[in-house]
Design a protein that fits this description.
The protein is mainly beta. Helices cover 7% and strands 44% of the residues. The chain has a seven-stranded mixed beta barrel. Strands 1, 2, 3 and 4 form a four-stranded antiparallel β-sheet that branches. A three-stranded antiparallel β-sheet has the order 8-9-12, with no helix packed on it. Helix 2 links the parallel strand 10 and strand 11. Keywords: DNA-directed RNA polymerase, Nucleus, Transcription. It is found in: Nucleus. This is RPA43 OB domain-containing protein. It comes from Mitosporidium daphniae.
């Protein structure tokens, strides 16, 4: 799966003079800016910070720069890809004619645009569900609402092609690669079928929706824009 790992790392801070008498507030404000943004050096997205300690006995002011500089240590919880072909799971929490919304790993919001669904599904406006165009023996009913993510990930049929997409349903897929774009966006490459069908791209990034990848009939999966943020976050970018 996509892993949550804890690392203890040094962080170099550059704080404005307004925090000279409120060091703790300045340190917390600066470090919190690192959350939910991809960090290339850490090779992951910090989602939580704990145990912050100041390393320097005093801050340093250099030349005519009014900012003061100091180092701290902090425990970071990172969301990262540690091995290829990792299985992850999301739960559908919103369906419309424009997109299908997911909660990934109980933490991240995902959006699958309609343009990447139409090669295999059509939107049924009265039931508000995406129905599969060609149903065959490889498809399953997709009534997975009572199954936990662990059950889905441990099931023999981990990757499936549901007959329809509906709220509460679990969707699983493999992630096999990542490309850094910016601190607000990374590109995750994944697939939902057999290992030989690695032709679906998943995108993890900022709050602006983007549609990329192939919509051809041979594409077996979705293009997804994953928005950094917890369920209760108002704004994450």
């Amino acid at each position: 799966m996509l892993d949550f790992v804890e690392v203890r790392v040094p962080i170099r801070l550059h704080l404005p003079p307004i925090f000279s008498s409120r060091l703790q507030v300045g340190v917390l404000q600066y470090i919190h800016q690192l959350l939910l943004k991809y960090n290339a050096e850490l090779q992951g997205i910090p989602v939580a910070i704990n145990k912050i300690s100041v390393l320097d006995p005093c801050a340093v002011i250099k030349y005519d720069n009014p900012y003061f500089h100091l180092s701290v240590m902090a425990d970071l919880t990172l969301w990262r890809i540690s091995t290829p072909n990792q299985l992850t799971c999301g739960e559908i929490n919103k369906i419309s004619g424009d997109h299908v919304g997911l909660i990934m790993l109980g933490t991240l919001n995902a959006s699958i645009p309609a343009s990447s669904l139409r090669s295999a599904y059509f939107y049924e406006i009265f039931s508000k569900k995406w129905i599969r165009l060609n149903v065959n023996d490889e498809c399953i009913d997709g009534e997975m609402g009572n199954m936990t993510e662990d059950h889905i990930l441990e099931a023999e049929k981990k990757i499936f092609r549901p007959k329809q997409l509906e709220i509460g349903q679990k969707l699983s897929f493999y992630v096999d690669g990542m490309t850094f774009i910016s601190e607000d966006q990374i590109s995750l490459t994944g697939y939902r079928q057999a290992a030989s069908s690695k032709n679906t791209k998943f995108y993890n990034g900022s709050n602006s929706a983007q549609t990329r990848g192939s919509n051809s009939a041979q594409t077996r999966g979705f293009n997804s824009v994953l928005n950094y943020g917890f369920r209760n976050s108002v704004k994450t970018g």
